[in-house]
Amino acid sequence: MSSTPNRVYAARLVGLPIFDPQGDQVGKVRDIVVTMRSEASQPRVLGLVGEVFGRRRVFVPMTRVTNVDSGQVYTTGLLNMRRFEQRSTETLVIGQMLDRHVTIPHGSSNDVRIAGTVYDVAMEQGRTRDWVLSRVAVQEPAKALRRRGQTHVVEWRDVQGLTRPGGETQGATALLHALNEMRPADAATMIHDLPLERRTAVVAALDDERLADVLEELPEEDQVAILERLDAERAADVLEEMSADDAADLIADLPPETAEILLDLMEPEEAEDVRRLMSYVENTAGGMMTPEPVVLGTDATVADALAHVRNPDLTPALAALVYVCRPPLETPTGRLIGVAHIQRLLREPPSSLVAGALDDSMENLRPEATIDQVAAHLATYNLVCAPVVDENGHLLGAVTVDDLLDHMLPTGWRDQALSSSGGRGRG
């Protein structure tokens, strides 16, 4: 599929940076807003949905867009920072048009039509300088011995099915491709804004690991709503993919009988971690810690430590410290000997023992420590994570700075970031 200077395909537009007249990036493109007229009339592009600071989505009128190409979008004037709210007469190209089931002409006769799904849509600027949707990329269903169905790029007027409501007949393949290219927080923002039927289809198509990543970034209300619509077996599988502290917080928001059913369906080791976290008082070090820090034995070398922290599943905060303990090395561990900073280990010979580079200057947190005490502890020792130990010195887990922020920010802060109040301004 080629693009002319005044024709841009929607799937390629998503994620592009938006620049102001001074050349400073002010956001990213997340969707395209159009008004549908009829199947014979090309929809007019009203503007773009841009994501700016704080994951707020704003409306960028096409009258403010001075240039669109394969690498960036340029605007003129100031953007209205009021949150974008879709109107009933508007359609989102990425959120509502991709994956729609349509029919297109086949061969020389318009009487013969083939069915397929939309995987991209092109917009272009006409002589009047208005942008319209001009072409549709459609993929036929896969046939025997062929991995992918044949693709076609056709004029808008030749497509039937795009002006009717999508409903449950709309799939999720093309939108999934866009979501999988985003960071979990960005994907959560897009899923949060989808209509219920579309969101349900997308959630059903996401794999368990990706859905777990997205759930961790959604407001509690969305988390519960999505989890309750899954069958119990899959809900348990998704909870297993989540970090134990996030899974514990989510399960705590469910009805007790539902929570118990899901815990029983989870793998025993995963469920045990979650149950243990749920046994601590909310908003304490024990309640917010993760039970999966990097734990090493007393014979571990610096090379061993560096190999462990290369795990891509570790957050940067969790990878900042390693914990040397006596067996057992699964939390709750044997007695904690000490912690070592990765920054310090990078200056040590790979064959030397981690135990020879421990930081013995700081105290450990107890599970009953309050949020304020945890915050003071991290600030005092300039840490991004810290060990939590019991009265016998056994390592229970680690509190990270992101765990702390999650609990210090106001209740519903994720929802505020996704759904800040205010209508859309037209500029």
UniProtKB/TrEMBL annotation:
Gene3D superfamilies in the record = CBS-domain (3.10.580.10), MgtE N-terminal domain-like (1.25.60.10), PRC-barrel domain (2.30.30.240)
Which Pfam families does this chain map to? CBS (PF00571), MgtE_N (PF03448), PRC (PF05239), SH3_actinomycetes (PF26205)
Residues crossing the lipid bilayer are: none
Q: Where is the CBS domain?
A: 358-416
Q: Does the keyword Ribosomal protein apply?
A: no
Going by the UniProt record, its keywords in alphabetical order are: CBS domain
**Annotated protein name in UniProt:** Magnesium transporter MgtE N-terminal domain-containing protein
